[in-house]
């Protein structure tokens, strides 16, 4: 049996390291290699007994062969080097023998991990099998040492009540590895009377947790009691087993986002029928690892300690790769240069780095091959590595609901490492039709919830965030997001296998029959559309009866069109159309009667000399349209028609700001106005901005004036904006700071951006109360002195000052209540950003801040960075 071979291997290594050859000792590194192997075998014996008893015949044979090979290697070395009357104190194996020993241990570890994964799949436990176990040597906790020290401190520091500690992070980032290392730490072992490690996984229910803990604590309990016993009986039995003990319970790989904190707050919320833990002030701890962010919190209650594991930086990535490839060997500078680039392409994910190192070690080590791998991010070695870690990552995808799976797969239509704007992603989700839309709000709350859920499950990464203008409390809102390359690869593979999307990257991709009947088509290589064969192939399919008639979305913003491609008009099912065009939209655009999103960009290097052009009047017949973003264009007079579904209108000039137009789009929520002062009537048209106040549903307004003047003069009185505004962005208007009093009348205003001399003057005394303002940006201003009243911006969370070269004097007033002195926005302010501003202003800001807020200030000067680089 494989179990007999496993135990024999453990005993052989134990005998070798404890009594190698009479009184002699093994020389490093052989001693360390075998000691580590023994520790791993010893700690894995319990699970090995369970798993090896039910392996398949084939796997059983493979394990016995692997163990026999390793045993033969050890015994042959022992026989070969056993001395006869020698006085040598240390026995040294040759480098080649050590290499063979390490390789055999590694082969066995790989097989054992395969067996573990297979057994876990049989149990339908979607657990994190990313822990680096029998890898040949003990990890140095690269990139995790700070987490290790801090976690160890919280596990051993005096704190009488039971505490819960959480490790959060993406699959493969090292949560289980870190928890396992600290679980076996000698100080931790000594500190606790009981230590219990419980694997949770995706199928575990809340009521199963006490049962699994109890099974670990008391193996003699019958399976019938553990499975059929009443909850209160299980709780009582568990409490008796823990009573009087200082215990550490590790819940590894918690998937249910509410389970962890429900477990912790069980007594308060009466989740269990009776309390399973004895209430004793004995410094017991519960440590859990999870991929799910919301597992950190429940009903406003937070764990005692949360550690969010990060990706490794470039130096740490190279260190981990080098250690796993070279170990104690010398790495030359040439290999180091290539290796650093290879490590960088792993994007800081430890599991990916270790897998790449394993694949590199299996190949002949030549500088030419390493340079080839380093030069190409899509080299076959990386593809093999992605395949190798896919089992660990796949469980994150498989655990999603069907709707979230669709949303995740959709992100594969974007290029690798693409920073996806939140609005664009949600618009495309909505237009695709698999999200339920809310009739009154836009973007759809269900779409936002889906995106937040993907982020919470650590599948989607946030690149930029800001304050949400759609919330009274102003929570953080995703601005741009994307996928780690490992998940991007998984996403593309699943999309291809399920025929969710057709992605064209190389010439042969586009000429096959795969695009027939596709509802989603994405170009990841823009050069393709410039190839005649590709263009004609797509054109034929577009024009055919069965080809791309089902296509619902076409995103071709990165492809330049000088004339509107009339073939697109054959795609009558289109809901989303985005392209870059220098010509006019045809009147026949109305044939796309199902179109909801129309986005037309312009060639940045080409500027029309004719001024703004009008959209065809037929646009008013497109009743499904929700979003229009056509650069440098205007909506014509509706002549009595209306667009009841239109929610967003962007990049139009003041010509569109007429009473007739605004009456015809009563539900508009987002408006973007761009005015280029190149025509005489544009100045007169600025007065039409007053019509904006007629938009009763408007939530977001952006008004940009492009003027040849560096500091424009006020062109018209500042209009009265709708009281419903939550986000306002102004640029180039040149109003005096006194006009800011009108901004204070907007009681719902959450985000305010003032750019390119939107307001001008050397002094601004902010005395008005901006009741809801939480994010303020001032960029490119001639402001010299700024004074903020103690009651002016009490809700401010973020302040960004950029390119304010004259700003020297900043004063934040203190106010006085009956019992204490308070500082403006002292409770809410989280971050102050000063980019390329006057150094005197930065010093004044630092002085103005109370000592408990100084950490919120971040100052960046590009000229200082340049000087340091030199």
Provide an overview of this structure.
With 870 residues, this protein is α/β, with parallel strands linked by helices. Among the domains are: 2-122, Up-down Bundle (Single alpha-helices involved in coiled-coils or other helix-helix interfaces); 145-308, Rossmann fold; 314-391, no CATH class; 402-486, Arc Repressor Mutant, subunit A; 761-870, no CATH class. The protein has 27 helices and 33 strands. The strands form 8 sheets. Strands 13, 14, 15, 16, 17, 18, 19, 20, 21, 23, 26, 28, 32 and 33 form a 14-stranded parallel sheet that branches. It has a 5-stranded parallel sheet with strand order 4-5-6-3-7, sandwiched between helices. A 3-stranded antiparallel sheet has the order 8-10-9. Strand 9 and strand 10 form a beta hairpin. Helix 1 (2-18) runs parallel beside helix 3 (57-81) and helix 3 (57-81) runs antiparallel to helix 4. The radius of gyration is 32 Å and the shape is globular. It starts with a helix and ends with a helix.
């Amino acid at each position: 049996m494989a179990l007999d071979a496993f135990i024999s291997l453990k005993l052989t290594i134990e005998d070798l390291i404890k009594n190698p050859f009479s009184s002699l000792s093994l020389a490093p590194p052989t001693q360390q290699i075998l000691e580590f192997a023994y520790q791993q075998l010893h700690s894995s014996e319990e699970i090995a007994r369970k798993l090896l008893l039910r392996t398949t015949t084939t796997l059983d044979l493979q394990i016995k062969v692997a163990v026999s090979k390793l045993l033969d290697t050890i015994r042959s070395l022992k026989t070969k080097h056993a001395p006869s009357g020698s006085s040598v104190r240390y026995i040294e194996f040759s480098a080649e023998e050590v290499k063979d020993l390490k390789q055999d241990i590694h082969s066995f570890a790989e097989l054992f991990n395969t067996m573990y994964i297979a057994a876990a799949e049989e149990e339908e436990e979607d657990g994190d099998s990313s822990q680096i176990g029998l890898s040949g040597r003990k990890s140095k906790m690269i990139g995790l040492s700070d987490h290790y020290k801090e976690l160890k401190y919280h596990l051993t520091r005096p704190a009488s009540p039971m505490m819960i500690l959480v490790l959060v992070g993406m699959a493969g980032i090292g949560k289980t590895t870190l928890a396992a290392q600290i679980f076996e730490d000698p100080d931790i072992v000594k500190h606790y009377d009981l230590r219990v490690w419980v694997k949770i996984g995706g199928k575990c229910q809340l009521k199963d947790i006490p049962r699994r803990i109890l099974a670990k604590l008391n193996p003699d309990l019958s399976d019938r009691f553990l499975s059929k016993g009443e909850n209160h009986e299980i709780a009582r039995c568990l409490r008796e087993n823990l009573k009087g003990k200082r215990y550490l319970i590790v819940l590894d790989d918690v998937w249910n986002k509410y389970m962890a904190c429900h477990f912790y707050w069980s007594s308060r919320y009466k989740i269990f029928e009776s309390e399973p833990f004895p209430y004793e002030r004995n410094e017991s701890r519960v440590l859990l690892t999870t991929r799910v962010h919301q597992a950190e919190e429940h009903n406003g209650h937070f764990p005692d300690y949360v550690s969010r594991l990060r990706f490794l930086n470039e130096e740490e990535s190279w260190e981990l790769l080098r250690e796993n490839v070279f170990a104690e060997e010398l790495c030359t500078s040439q290999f180091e240069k290539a290796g650093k680039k290879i490590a960088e392409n792993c994007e800081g994910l430890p599991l990916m780095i270790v897998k790449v190192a394993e694949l590199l070690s299996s190949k002949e080590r030549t500088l030419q091959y390493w340079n080839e791998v380093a030069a190409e991010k899509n080299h076959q070695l990386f593809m093999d590595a992605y395949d190798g870690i896919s089992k660990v990552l796949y469980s994150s995808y498989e655990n999603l609901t069907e709707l979230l799976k669709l949303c995740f797969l959709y992100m594969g239509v974007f290029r690798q490492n693409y920073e996806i704007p939140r609005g664009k992603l949600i618009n495309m989700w909505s237009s695709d039709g698999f999200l339920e839309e809310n009739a009154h709000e836009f973007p759809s709350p269900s779409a936002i919830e889906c995106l937040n859920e993907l982020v919470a499950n650590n599948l989607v990464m946030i690149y930029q965030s800001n304050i949400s203008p759609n919330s009274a409390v102003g929570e953080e809102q995703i601005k741009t997001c994307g996928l780690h390359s490992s998940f991007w690869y998984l996403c593309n593979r699943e999309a291809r296998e399920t025929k969710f999307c057709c992605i064209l990257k190389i010439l042969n991709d586009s000429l096959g029959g795969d695009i027939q009947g596709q509802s989603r088509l994405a170009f990841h290589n823009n050069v393709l559309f410039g190839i005649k064969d590709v263009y004609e192939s797509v054109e034929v399919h577009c024009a055919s009866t069965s080809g791309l008639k089902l296509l619902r979305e076409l995103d071709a913003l990165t492809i330049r069109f000088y004339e509107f491609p009339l073939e697109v008009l054959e795609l009558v099912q289109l809901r989303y159309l985005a392209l870059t065009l220098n010509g006019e939209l045809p009147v026949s655009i109305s044939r796309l009667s199902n179109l909801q999103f129309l986005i037309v960009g312009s060639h940045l290097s080409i500027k029309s000399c004719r001024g703004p052009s009008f959209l065809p009047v037929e646009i008013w017949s497109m009743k499904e349209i929700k979003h229009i973003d056509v650069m440098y264009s205007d909506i014509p007079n509706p002549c009595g028609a209306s667009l009841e579904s239109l929610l967003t209108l962007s990049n139009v000039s003041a010509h569109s700001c007429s009473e007739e137009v605004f009456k015809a789009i009563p539900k508009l929520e987002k408006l973007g106005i761009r005015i280029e002062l190149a025509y005489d009537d544009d100045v007169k048209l600025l007065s039409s901005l007053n019509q904006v106040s007629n938009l009763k549903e408007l939530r977001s307004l952006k008004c940009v004036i492009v003027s040849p003047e560096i500091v424009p003069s006020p062109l018209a009185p500042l209009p009265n904006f709708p009281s419903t505004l939550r986000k306002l962005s102004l640029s180039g208007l040149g109003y005096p700071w006194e006009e800011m009093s009108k901004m204070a009348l907007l009681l719902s205003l959450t985000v305010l951006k003032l750019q390119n001399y939107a307001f001008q003057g050397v002094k601004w005394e902010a005395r008005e109360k901006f009741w809801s303002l939480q994010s303020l940006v001032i960029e490119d201003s001639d402001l010299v002195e700024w004074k903020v009243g103690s009651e002016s911006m009490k809700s401010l969370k973020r302040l960004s000052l950029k390119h304010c070269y004259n700003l020297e004097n900043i004063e934040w007033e203190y106010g006085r209540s009956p019992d204490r002195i308070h500082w403006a926005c002292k409770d809410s302010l989280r971050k102050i950003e000063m980019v390329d501003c006057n150094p005197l202003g930065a010093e004044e800001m630092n002085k103005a801040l109370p000592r408990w807020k100084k950490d919120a200030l971040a100052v960046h000067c590009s000229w200082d960075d340049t000087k340091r680089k030199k």
